[in-house]
Structures
1.
Amino acid sequence: MNHQASLIQRLQLPAFTASQIHVDVMRLDQLHPIVSGNKWFKLQKHLALASPGRPILTFGGAWSNHLVATAYAAKQAGFPAIGIIRGEQPSSPSATLTDAAAYGMQLEFVSREQYGQKENPTFLQQLTHRYPGAYIIPEGGGGIPGITGSQDILQLADTTAYTHICCAIGTGTTFLGLHRASTPQQTIIGVPVLKGFDTSSLSGPRTLFLPQYHFGGYGRHPQILLDFMNDFHRDTGIPTDIVYTGKLFYAIRESIRQHLFHAHSRLLIIHSGGLQGNRSLPPRKLDF
Ligand SMILES: *Cc1c(COP(=O)(O)O)cnc(C)c1O
């Protein structure tokens, strides 16, 4: 993990300067080329609860950021790792699954139907029977350890002077961690990437959601999003991913254009990584 580089970078776009808004990005994507930033933080507190020598078991699809991050983090901490993968074993595995296997994760493919049981206590009991003493991390690395792990993100730098902290929402675990770690003066802004995501369990004082930037739903990445990601990379040098952070940066840019923030606001956008997932695209869709 690269903790040396300065993780905070100023974002300068014409739309921002005109509005007198200061925007910084926390580049968690730069921690590691494969292991997505927020997943790494969520995993640390899970791994702290696992029994030495016993396997870590988790779930994911063919391009899961969480799965490959778990494989890497488990290897680093000296745990065997098992990945329960959604869908039948493909004839040629995805780059993500290839990486996870290279980090030593044992992959077990299950039908979509069976995968749907991933939160069913009986199914989980069967898994712990098959892999004795396994510590099971829910898909996406959620739960209380995931929330407390995410709190550490705001300890990476002095973040107290920001008025708004912005992140993408998948499960909302990271959002909750950021909210807990924020100061009473800060507003936490979440951009759900799932269509129709119910934010009621996440909302509280100092929360704000921008639900209209899912681009059709989870895993959807229409050309207009890809065009934005290419433009954004050209203008700022920052690569984004098609599932989460492309939508996040688009949403914040639009919101600034629409004067959602008062002058002199100071925004911190959490770039939560996920770049490895862009490998699911056909070649030449992205310029980076
Ligand atoms: C998983 C993920 C998220 C969403 O995190 P949650 O805690 O599930 O809301 C955001 N960005 C990236 C890059 C991710 O991989």
2.
Amino acid sequence: MLLLYSHLYIVFICWVDIQTGAALESSSKPPIYRNKDISISPEDKEVVNGQEEKAFSLVDQLDPEKSSPGIWNSDSNVITPSDEKKGDPINVPKEESRDIRVPEGKSSSKKAEDVDLVVAAPISSVNKSSPLEGKEYKNSTISAGNQACNYAIGKWVEDDRRPLYSGFECKQWLSPMWACRLTQRTDFAYEKFQWQPKNCKMDEFTGSNFLRRMQDKTLAFIGDSLGRQQFQSLMCMITGGKESPDVTSVGWKYGLVKARGALRPDGWAYWFPGTNTTILYYWSASLCDLEPLNSTNPTTDYAMHLDRPPAFLRRFLNKFDVLVLNTGHHWNRGKLKANRWVMHVGGVPNTDSKIAEIGGAKNLTIHSIVKWVDSQLPKYPSLKAFYRTISPRHFFNGDWNTGGSCDNTTPLSDGKEVLKDESLDPVAVAAVKGTRVKLLDITASSQLRDEGHISRYSIRATPGMQDCLHWCLPGIPDMWNEILFAQL
Ligand SMILES: *[C@@H]1O[C@H](CO)[C@@H](O)[C@H](O)[C@H]1NC(C)=O
Ligand SMILES: *[C@@H]1O[C@H](CO)[C@@H](O)[C@H](O)[C@H]1NC(C)=O
Ligand SMILES: *[C@@H]1O[C@H](CO)[C@@H](O)[C@H](O)[C@H]1NC(C)=O
Ligand SMILES: *[C@@H]1O[C@H](CO)[C@@H](O)[C@H](O)[C@H]1NC(C)=O
Ligand SMILES: *[C@@H]1O[C@H](CO)[C@@H](O)[C@H](O)[C@H]1NC(C)=O
């Protein structure tokens, strides 16, 4: 009956004019980038999806994917700029991922514009029965039920059936840096909770239920490392963390292959042959298109087209049945500067001072991508698009670089319930309003789980630095997938 849906759910994308697609396809071939000025430290290795990849020590310090401070460092970061690829992802040689050396960050004093999670003044709740949605949902009892409830409201309850997979297992999908069972951490109470929405019926998540529901379908996560966490979590949840030799890597179908010299591919795609289900993740930290300004210059600046969705999304949207978008933690001045991203709007450098502020740029991008996805839904009536709200950080007594920590080990010491019908991510709420893109609102519920972060146990964390942004897996992102499943 899900097939009856005629509307799309979308999470979050840059707005792009219809004509942009054609313009992009005709743009010049991307340059080759190499990690040439980054030293390799042989002991820095990471096993990703069964493949050992050499990691670069400098990258390790900066790269959000490397369990190092980079990702929650609000002044510096590394992003593999892959969105600018224009060529055929299968036949055209890809540029290698380019990791960028970042200058020593300034202090974290510019908080006002760099905060990743802004808990803004209360906003009115999303109207779940807008005329548009009412029409779209009329013929589906399931979706009508979903619309009547808000998955963001509810409580955490202890549940012996959690976690849904073991952090010792799931080596096929789970990055060791996020598998807290593999670290010195000894408290695992945080694994034992399930989210119970107040007014929504949730089917029990099982791998077979999920796959049955996703028969002949493709689910795509597009976003930053928190999106990658959700992707890995889902792969582990579906397989129960068990070795699954039948699940086939099909990244090549989407151009997701590791280029020579690259640290990793821009994403991963896996196919479950039993149900012909594909799950994929594509790395796009900013959810907008990145285009080298001088394609023959390896140290070129990038046009960061705030109002244009990533090329990958534009190219492959027609292949997706479910789309989950997210962004958030890469939006600060330091990261933009470090990545040499220059804001563009309408194809030209931005001159609007309101947009030039980080908050304004992020807002424009989120609104743009949601609007664009919404505009595509009539073409792809079976697509369900979600925008996932911001994942909260929990640095106490400092920030990531000033001794901030998340040492609490007692689950839910700050309460277990979310009662307010207003999201903690007003930007996302405003962006999806009036569109058929659905909000996957995980912010308030995750906000209660400060004990679930990697904390000090990150495998290669710099002593003194804690990761209070990413989550241990199994853990809180599993819940994001449970409420996603409930809405499919
Ligand atoms: C929600 O939309 C319905 C239908 O358009 C309208 O009757 C109702 O007043 C709206 N509620 C809010 C809180 O805006
Ligand atoms: C929705 O249901 C009504 C009444 O059952 C039917 O007339 C209409 O064609 C259906 N619309 C769609 C899009 O299936
Ligand atoms: C397998 O699933 C894809 C979508 O993920 C679909 O396009 C294709 O038609 C399916 N193949 C079969 C044989 O049903
Ligand atoms: C592009 O970069 C190359 C190599 O650095 C340089 O020679 C060329 O002048 C640049 N082109 C423009 C238009 O700036
Ligand atoms: C966010 O962007 C939208 C669309 O451009 C705009 O209407 C809205 O006013 C912006 N909100 C803020 C807080 O800047």
3.
Amino acid sequence: MRSPDPTDPRQTSSRRQVLGAAAAATLGLIFRPAHAQDAVDLGLRGGSGVRSLTTAFPQKGRLILQRTRPPLLETPFEVFDKGVFTPNDQFFVRWHWAVIPTEIDVEGYRVAVRGHVNQPLSLTLQDLVGLPKVEMAAVNQCSGNSRGLFQPRVPGAQWGNGAMGNAKWTGVRLRDVLDKAGVKAGATAVRFNALDEPVVDGAPDFEKSLAIDHARDGEVMLAYLMNGEPLPLLNGFPLRLIVPGWFSTYWVKMLNDIEVLSGPDDNYWMKTAYRIPDTPFANVRPGQTGFPTVPINRMGPRSFITNLRDGASLPAGAEALVRGIAFGGDAGVQAVDLSFDGGKSWQPARLGQDEGKYGFRRWETRWTPPGAGAATIQVRCTNTDGAVQPAEANWNGGGYLRNVIESISVKAG
Ligand SMILES: Nc1nc2c(c(=O)[nH]1)N[C@H]1C(S)=C(S)[C@@H](COP(=O)(O)O)O[C@H]1N2
Ligand SMILES: [Mo]
């Protein structure tokens, strides 16, 4: 079953998780036009960064409208100042195809485990809930997060920095599910497919795969709770893949098919899309060709100031609080350092509680602007593998892997 079947007698309204008529209507595209003041400027150079704010999507609060169909919704940056866990209703949303079920029959829902296995399975959510439970904080970051800040600009969704979020995920280990089916010798990869479908015939269904050892590493999980609640439909209810430390293109939502492969996965989304230059920071010169590419994979460290905006005013000579979030990418946060002198010297920030190496980590420091005038504040994260954010922005035609040291300008007076 690829999507809810209206002729299926089991799908009576008493038995389904129904999101309500309003939800269905909204996914079908009706959204209230935003008022003029309900807009935000993402500060994208060389093109308009002005976007509407919307509250029109089911189970979702105020988000930046990047695209309506399929829904691409960005988290307003000030949300990241509130704490390390991004609220479900303001967690960003990204889909490739607009054919997304607007309701899920929880009892009829099955996840197939098939392919190069001893015992193909068809698991219910109850079956999954019966497996050992695991919990992990992890950052879900779109491969194209911050793409709108690339110079020169590149095509694709023009995200600011809000196509990311951190949640506490509850679910089961993918390894436990694969072990239940019994992976046969010679398995190479595991491919994941879901309930969403292409809008036009012949377009490639969204599927991603992980190498077999990665899939069985004991960290990759199938999550049925997000921050202790069922996932919002738009974030993948009732089940999604969590690939800690890796970009969220692999975090397949509304997962209903797990296929163990015994050969390479050359489906469109692995072989053609989401590839990056095989160079440090996936960096190439604009116009450069002939470089090798690999499927996008691990995230690098990033850090952001969340309590001061670019252009903020601070009283000269008075101590100011500077606070934000950081994450290590595919490793924990080792250190967050700030520079107030254009990168000549760096001083460590105090780190907040460690909620797990793949999650956001709070940091804060205090700084007294020495005198009146303009100043720049830079923030830099080093992860526990020693990877550090670069001083120069990377560039590639996909708009991937931006993790340059962030800076804001402030005025003291
Ligand atoms: N089934 C399905 N899963 C998917 C996608 C999709 O289009 N379909 N997009 C992926 C991409 S590119 C991103 S950035 C994340 C977004 O997750 P979110 O919408 O929960 O924030 O979902 C991933 N999982
Ligand atoms: Mo993405």
4.
Amino acid sequence: MNIYLKVSNATVFCNGHLALEIAIKALGLTGEVITTPFTFASTTHALINCGLTPVFCDIDIDTCTMSISKIENLITKNTSALLPVHVFGYPCNVYAIEKIAKKHGLSVIYDAAHVFGVEVDGKGIGTFGDVSMFSMHATKVFHSIEGGILTYENEVFKKEFNLLRNFGITGPEMVAITGTNAKMNEFQAAMGLVNLHYVDEEISKRQKIAYMYRKCLKTIHGIKFLEDMPNIRHNYAYFPIIIQENDYGLTRDSLYEKLQSYNVFTRKYFYPLTVDFDCYKSKFQCNIPNSRYIADRVLTLPMYGELELDSVEKICQIIQDIYLNIVS
Ligand SMILES: *Cc1c(COP(=O)(O)O)cnc(C)c1O
């Protein structure tokens, strides 16, 4: 695992979410943590479950990751860390985040659930920040049925992570800290080891699919998508499109339903924003116009290694036909 991810240390867990909570605990975070609402429930829940106050930073429209220029305004004397999310296989601006964290003495934990195998300038994405959490849930690019990994360059965390995932037990008659049960089991580990042989093949198949989507979609008005970034190895975890209803003629929700009638099943991912969940509604003050813009317009198209390139062309043709029916 260390070798594939190009990291110095990796500890495995039963799932990504508990790994994230354990990272938060081990770093001893307090008060406020700056994060984003354009993520899976897990990121926000982890902070709340650990008794912390999430402070929501907006995302950039072009990358869907934390907006660097908006972070510093949110830092207060109570801020202890940043918890940015690498989204869809696209990394955050890790260098800028490192700079801000250093300047203000903040810890950095990345939610790296989407970026297994991603590299920045040839370095494993998990080498950035203090700790990164990868998920190996069955829905991810690489999976161990369920599973999580924490990666970290500083070896001091290893002991604490091992203790926290196993009830804090230090000996047959000794329990040192309040831990939990977050151990990865052997069956999960076996599945992960088998799948590790196929992950590069899976990523290269997905790359071809992503390129085909881009080729077929680029001529359709009002459909935007993310491009590859320079010096990044992407993993093509998802293929999100942004539907600009003024140009396309239909809203995201209408396209979502129309595609279903053609048996094309897409996901509104991430929608709703975590701050709009029933459990968090109106609990947090936040200024997040870009997050709202993307959450209302994003759709992730089918993406898996076995998806035929012909099917990709068909899906794009359907999106084109729907557009033509509207404009004609
Ligand atoms: C999948 C996911 C998680 C949670 O991982 P699990 O392994 O399912 O617990 C956290 N954050 C993001 C962004 C995810 O996509």
